[in-house]
Amino acid sequence: METTARALSTVERALAVLRVLADSPRDLGNNEIARSVGTNPSTVSRLLATLAQDELVHRAPDSGRFRLGPRLVELGNAALAKVDLRQQARPHLVLLTEATGETATLSVPGEQTTITLDFVQSPSTVRSVAVVGRRSVTHATATGKVFLAYGGAMPTGPLTAYTRRTITDRRDLAAEVARTAERGWGQAIGERENDLNAVAAPVFDASGTLVAVLGLQGPAARFGPRAMGTAADQLVTHAAQLSSGNAS
Questions:
Q1: Contacts of 173 (CB under 8 A, 6+ apart)
Q2: Domain ranges within the chain, ordered by starting residue
Q3: Taking the mean position of all CA atoms in its chain, how far away is CA 216?
Q4: What pairing do the DSSP bridges indicate for beta strands 210-219 and 196-204?
Q5: Is 139 exposed, middle or buried (0-12, 13-18, 19+ CB in 10 A)?
Q6: What is the pLDDT of residue 238?
Q7: What is the pTM (predicted TM-score) of this model?
Q8: How far apart are CA 72 and CA 208, in angstroms?
Q9: CATH class (in words) of the domain with range 2-73
Q10: Per-residue pLDDT tens for 96-142?
């Protein structure tokens, strides 16, 4: 039992290293990673050496710093290829972007939040840029609020203020989540990023479990309350159609 616990702890630390590298916009050194993970540099050094053997991380020869490795791209593409929902949702994303001119996204729920699985970029020069693999912030995004409204656990700890409009009071967040569940879609108005608005709607399987979230996001100057309301109606329609496909 003790050996199993140690093995699980090692796996957890390795996953933590990968998450730190994924969240960083630049290459990181061993000591930086150790501080972020909360363990000693020698342990992180051994983990990085093991991960590098399988190309899960890459060590830059000139700087000795680390980034995610090419093997993760291969694994990610293999996982995406097996996700039928992504194929089913793609035509809906295309139609939503054509109808609204904004960026349409498909996210899937994880343990603590949703993760962007696919998107169709807005054709406009000024547009919101989506990123596959990006995690939503449950209290500051439309997709995150949908996640909370349909079974996701409320965040623990202080609610980070990303902008002056971010909800940081738990009672306010609970009220917003209740409104999201009542009307069947969520919204965020400049809450994760200034001047970025978004709406989102849930997709369910045959048992009524949340399996995906459709979203639309765009710059506030163009994607204001009226446009968001129209987009929300379209999202709900497409999400219902996807839900019907998952129920068959």
A1: 139, 148, 154, 159, 167
A2: 2-73, 83-247
A3: 14
A4: antiparallel
A5: buried
A6: 96
A7: 0.69
A8: 32
A9: mainly alpha
A10: 999 999 999 999 998 889 999 899 999 888 667 777 888 899 999 99
